[in-house]
Amino acid sequence: MTAARLFLLQRASAAVLALAVLVHLATIIIAVRGGLTAGEILGRTSGNVAWLAFYALFVIAAAIHAPIGLRNILREWTGWRGRSCDLAMMLLSAALLALGLRAAWAVYAA
Amino acid sequence: MSATLSVSVQRGTDGRRIDRFEVPRQPAQTVLDVVTWIQREADPTLAYRFACRVGMCGSCAMTVNGKPRWTCRTRVETVAPDGCLTLEPLRNMPVVKDLVVDMAPFFAKWTAAHGVFTPRENLGADFAVVPPSSPERRAADAAIECIGCGVCYSACDVVAWRSDYLGPAALNRAWTLVNDVRDGHARERLVAVAGDAGCHACHSHGSCTQHCPKSLSPTASIAGLKRAVLRATLRGEL
Fold it and tell me: Residue A46's domain is classified under what CATH number?
C-alpha cells in the first residue's frame, strides 16, 4: 500500500477515533456516576445492537490507526523497515481486531 | 562592549577540533566580517563559503551559536551580546572542510522531489497567461522566493533523524510547481513527494519556517502537498 493511502487511512481512522473516544469516556463517566455495578452495565449492553456496532467500529478504527502510527515510529526511530516490519504491523492489527471484537461481542452476548 | 570577540570555530571535517580566535569588534559588524577577518588576519587556512555578501546568494549560511543563519545578514551584536561566538558548518550535510559543506545531497533531493519545471504539452506557442491573483499563483508566489541556501534543511530535525527525507526546501520547491498551471508533470511530482521519505514524513515542527531567512513557510508548503496528495489519492490518481 502506498504511503499516501496509509496517510489517508490513518487520518480517516483518527477522525472516527476522536468521536468514539469521546463517546466512550462520556459513557464511562456517566455509568460510574450513577453507581452502576458491572452486572447492571452488562444488563444494559447485552443484546444491544447499537452498542455492538459502536464498539465494533471503535475497534476497527483502532486496529487501522495504531499499527500505521507505530510503523511510522519504528521506521523513524529504529530503522526497522521492509516486509518484516509491515508483516509485524499486520499481525498487530489482526491481534487488536481479534481481541477488540471479542470484547465487544462479550459485552453484547453477556 | 569589550574590544574583542571570543570566537570558536569548528575546523576539519569530523567536528572534533575547535579553534579559538580573538577578533576586534567593529560597529555594525556581521558574522561574515568576523570569519573574513579570521581568514585574512589570523589563519589563512580557514575554509568558508560566501559570494554576494548582501543576502542575495545564500552561500554564506553557517551554524551561528547553534542556529543556522546567513552570516552576511547576521550582526554580531544581535547574536552575541556577551561577545562569544561559536561557528560551525550547517547541519545535515557532509562537511568538506571547516565551515564548508557539500550541498550535493541537498540539491539531489530537489531532483528527487521533481523540483524541475516541465512544460505541459499543449502549452501553446504564445505566452501563457497566469493571473497573479489566481489561488494557484498566490500559493506558488508565497513559496517562490527560496534561493536554496540550505538553512531550513540544516534546521530540520526530521532530516537529522532520517537522512533520506526530502527536506523542507525540496518539498517547498515541489509545492510551487504543483501550483504552476503551465507545468505538465503534476502527477509525477505528487508521486515523488508522496513516497515514504516525502511530505508525510514531516512532523510539522516548524523549524524550517522559524529559521528561513526569507521568512518563507516550508511547513505550510508541505501541508499543502499533503492536501494535494490526499485529494489525488481520493480521486484514485495515486
Answer: 1.20.1300
Put the strands of the sheet holding B61-64 in their side by side order: B17-24, B4-11, B84-88, B61-64, B67-70
Over range B151-162, report the average pLDDT: 96
- Which residues on chain B are in Cβ contact (under 8 Å) with A11? 230
Nearest to B155 by CA among B122, B190, B202: B202
Looking at B101, B136, B167, the residue that finishes a domain is B101
> H or E segment at B96?
strand B95-97
Cβ atoms of B146 and B172 closer than 8 Å: yes
Q: How many CB pairs under 8 A join A and B?
A: 32
**CB count in 10 Å sphere of residue B74:** 24
The percentage of residues in chain B with a pLDDT greater than 90, rounded to a whole number, is 90
The per-residue pLDDT for range B167-183, each reduced to its tens digit, is 999 999 999 999 999 99
Structurally, chain A folds into a number of domains equal to 1
Do B134 and B90 belong to one domain? no
How do residues B197-220 score in pLDDT, each as one tens digit?
Answer: 999 999 999 999 999 999 999 999
